[in-house]
Amino acid sequence: MTDQLDESVRSLLDISNRSNTRSLETGTAQQARVDYNAGFPALQGAKEAVASVEDRQISGPDGSITVRIYRGFGAPSKDGPGLLYFHGGGWVIGNLDSHDEICRWFANLGKCTVICPDYRLAPEHKFPAGLMDCAAALGFMAKSATDFGIDLRRIAVAGDSAGGNLAAVLAVMSRSGAAPRLAAQLLIYPNTDATQTADSYRRYATGFGLTATTMKWFRDYYVRTAADIVDWRVSPLRAESVAGAAPAFIATAGYDILVDEGTAYAERLRQEGVRVVLRHWPGQIHGFVSMGRYVPQARQAVQEAVAAWRSFEEAPD
C-alpha cells in the first residue's frame, strides 16, 4: 500500500516510527499540546516575510480572543481580498504559531489580509465554544473590513482538518444569514463527518500519521454528548442542505483517514449546485500542508487554493 507514498512523506513517517513518540491519545490534552508544540517547528520551513503581522485582542462571546493579522506583499490598500483562517489540530491542539507558515503563504500568494483567531480548544471548551469564537472573528473581519482595506464581497474562510470543519460550517451558516456572506471556502483535508464511518478510516487506520484512534480521541474531547456527533455544526456533511454555500476549494490527501469524507463533501456541494474545485494529492498524508520544510507540495496546495479563490471571483455563480 505504501509504494505510492511521496518519498519525503515516507522518510518523515520512518523517522516518526523509529522515534517511538507516544500517541497523543495516551496522555491528557495538556500533554498532547506540549508534545505537538515541541514537534511542529521542525516541520515548518523558514518564516516567509510578509508586509506586516500583528496580534490583536477582539471581543468574543465569552471574553477576548487573540487574532493574528497578516498583510501580504501586494495586498491592496482598498477593496482587497480578506481571508479568515482556522488552524487545525482536532479542536484540541494547535495555535497561532503552529499554522503561521500557512497563513504567511496565503497572505503573499493571495495578496490579501489574513486573520487567524486563537479560538478556544476542547476539552476545556467543548462544542460549540470554538465555533462561536470563529463566528465572532468573522463578524469582526466583516465589521472592520474597511479598516483593513478589504472588500466585504471578497471575504473567504479557510482551514485545515478541524479548521476546515469550522470553515465549512461557517460557510453553511453564511448562506442563511447566520454569518456574513462569503466569497469562497478553502478547505484543506477537512473533517466533515464526525461519525467516522467512512471506509478510509479502515484503509488508513494506522501507519500514516493521523490514526483512527487519535481522531476518535479528538472528536470525543470536542463533543458534549453523542448527539453532537450528528449535529451538522459538527458534521457539515449531514446538513439538511448546503445549497447556496460559497464556492469551495477542497484539498484531499491519498493516505488520509479523512479523504473519503472530504471527497463526499465535494460531491454533496456539487449535487446542490455549489461550484467546487477538488484537488487530490495521491501520495500525501494528513497534515502535509504543515510540513513545508520537507514537502514541496505544501506551498503548492496553498497556491492552488488561492488560484481557485480567484477563479470564483472571475466567474461568480
UniProtKB/TrEMBL annotation:
Keywords (A to Z) from UniProt: Hydrolase
GO MF, one annotated term: hydrolase activity
Domain (Alpha/beta hydrolase fold-3) ranges: 83-289
Active site as annotated: S161
Superkingdom of the source species: Bacteria
Family as reported in the entry's similarity comment: Belongs to the 'GDXG' lipolytic enzyme family.
PANTHER family, alphabetized: AB HYDROLASE SUPERFAMILY PROTEIN C4A8.06C, ALPHA_BETA HYDROLASE FOLD-3 DOMAIN-CONTAINING PROTEIN-RELATED
Designated name of the protein: Alpha/beta hydrolase
Species this chain originates from: Rhizobium calliandrae
Lineage summary: Bacteria, Pseudomonadati, Pseudomonadota, Alphaproteobacteria, Hyphomicrobiales
